[in-house]
């Protein structure tokens, strides 16, 4: 009897999961596993935790939902805690598995972990099979090799859209044969070193982790409200739930795949018509792809101060009081402060806000961009290593921006995107809205 381990990471779904489908097709039984990696909760050299409380809560909700969905198919999720290179081989020995199936990594630390696991598995004569499950376009279908991907997005987009095809999704399995798996005993936030998450009442949306919630959000935004047909006009909004898709948090943990979103978008277009707005969602998913492919191409250079351009940026000696004023929303610039308060109190910030907050730290305060990226890594509920570090490097002028110095005029931006100060008034008032506690 062939038994395999399916190692879930940032692919916490049963629909369109090639890793799971391939494991089922090639084995008699599978053991779905998630390892809560202790290194993901440590403090980075920049002084921030790799995972903050909002994302930790979202992760636990996503794992709970994945376990529920797996149990409906006859299986369950085995949740481990520790180092993957220790815990995954232990499970392999326990169940006498001969293969491990997992999502393929591209970022530096994640790739090193994957290689460490592979090394330990080889000692057990166990193979590791990995699959690309995170992008809209598969890397193998691109019209160029990874090393030859253009460093300018527009060049990448035009050629890819013209010459590459988007693959079909993998259907949800009908049944998953597994030995009996006990319900997971997920750690509480306090056990992970956090206080209970309090979501401010002004939050644009209440994010809840899991594939089930991702499907609800997609159906709401597409078929319930038809907001997707207005997306291009509203995407730079800053107040409310439906100015943008808000898919990013579920995409970041793989609770939903970009190809599934694309499939449902095509269904929507057949029923209600295509327009610039429906195309623009594909455009944004392409940006997400691009940063992942850039991470694969440039590897550790994506995390260097000089970036992929090897360009030294003029920065000041770190003034931590100044940085803290930015982090706490107390710079005196009302547009930046409102955005930073939203991030602090909800774990979310609009795309427009992120660009302005990053530009202000890099170009007005002359701070090393990596500290901002590290703070966002801790704080964002939708943190994705490729998109976060790629976007920060882009705004800092050391990434993929073809312009050498993209400086945002914050006052003009505020006037253009918050003309009536609705957003600033919402977040800069003095009363406390943090009464809604999620435990």
From TrEMBL:
Pfam families per record: DNA_photolyase (PF00875), FAD_binding_7 (PF03441)
Boundaries of every Photolyase/cryptochrome alpha/beta domain copy: 2-136
Keywords, sorted A to Z: Chromophore, FAD, Flavoprotein, Lyase
Gene Ontology MF: a single term: DNA binding
Cofactor binding notes: Binds 1 FAD per subunit.
Gene3D superfamilies: 1.25.40.80, DNA Cyclobutane Dipyrimidine Photolyase, subunit A, domain 3, HUPs
GO biological process per UniProt: photoreactive repair
Amino acids binding FAD: 231, 244-248, 382-384
UniProt cofactor(s): FAD; (6R)-5,10-methylene-5,6,7,8-tetrahydrofolate
Main function: May have a photoreceptor function.
PANTHER family from the UniProt entry: CRYPTOCHROME, CRYPTOCHROME DASH
Recorded family membership: Belongs to the DNA photolyase class-1 family.
This protein's name: Cryptochrome DASH
Species of origin: Flavobacterium saliperosum
């Amino acid at each position: 009897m062939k038994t395999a381990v399916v190692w879930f990471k940032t692919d916490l779904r049963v629909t369109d999961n090639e890793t799971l489908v391939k494991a089922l097709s090639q084995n008699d039984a599978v053991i779905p596993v998630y390892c809560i990696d202790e290194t993901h909760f440590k403090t980075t050299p920049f002084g921030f935790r790799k995972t903050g409380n909002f994302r930790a809560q979202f992760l636990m909700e996503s794992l709970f939902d994945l376990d529920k969905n797996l149990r409906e198919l006859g299986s369950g999720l085995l949740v481990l805690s520790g180092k993957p290179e220790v815990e995954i081989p232990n499970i392999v020995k326990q169940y006498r598995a001969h293969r491990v199936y997992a999502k393929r990594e591209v970022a530096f630390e994640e790739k090193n972990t994957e290689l460490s696991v592979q090394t330990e598995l080889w000692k057990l004569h166990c193979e590791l099979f990995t699959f690309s499950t995170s992008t809209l376009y598969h890397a193998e279908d691109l019209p160029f090799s990874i090393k030859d991907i253009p460093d300018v997005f527009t060049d990448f987009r035009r050629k890819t859209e013209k010459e590459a095809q988007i693959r079909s999704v993998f259907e949800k399995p009908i049944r998953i044969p597994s030995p009996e798996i006990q319900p997971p005993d997920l750690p509480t936030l306090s056990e992970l070193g956090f206080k209970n998450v309090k979501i401010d009442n002004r939050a644009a949306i209440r994010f809840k982790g899991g594939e089930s919630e991702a499907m609800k959000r997609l159906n709401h935004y597409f078929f319930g409200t038809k907001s997707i047909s207005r997306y291009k006009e509203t995407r730079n909004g800053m107040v409310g739930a439906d100015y943008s898709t808000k898919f990013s948090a579920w995409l970041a943990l793989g609770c939903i795949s970009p190809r599934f979103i694309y499939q449902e978008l095509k269904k929507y277009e057949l029923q209600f018509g295509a327009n610039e707005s429906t195309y623009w969602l594909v455009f944004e998913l392409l940006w997400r792809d691009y940063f992942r492919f850039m991470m694969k191409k440039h590897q550790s250079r994506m995390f260097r101060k000089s970036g992929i351009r090897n360009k030294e940026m003029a920065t000041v000696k770190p003034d931590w009081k100044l940085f803290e004023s930015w982090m706490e929303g107390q710079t005196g610039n009302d547009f930046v402060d409102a955005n930073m308060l939203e991030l602090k109190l909800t774990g979310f910030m609009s795309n427009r806000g992120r660009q302005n907050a990053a530009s202000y730290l890099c170009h007005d305060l002359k701070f090393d961009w990596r500290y901002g990226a590290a703070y966002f890594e801790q704080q964002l509920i939708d943190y994705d290593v490729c998109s976060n570090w790629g976007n920060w490097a882009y705004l800092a002028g050391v990434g993929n921006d073809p312009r050498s110095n993209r400086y945002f005029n914050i006052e003009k931006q505020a006037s253009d995107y918050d003309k009536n100060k609705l957003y600033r008034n919402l977040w800069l008032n003095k009363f406390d809205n943090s009464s809604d506690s999620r435990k």
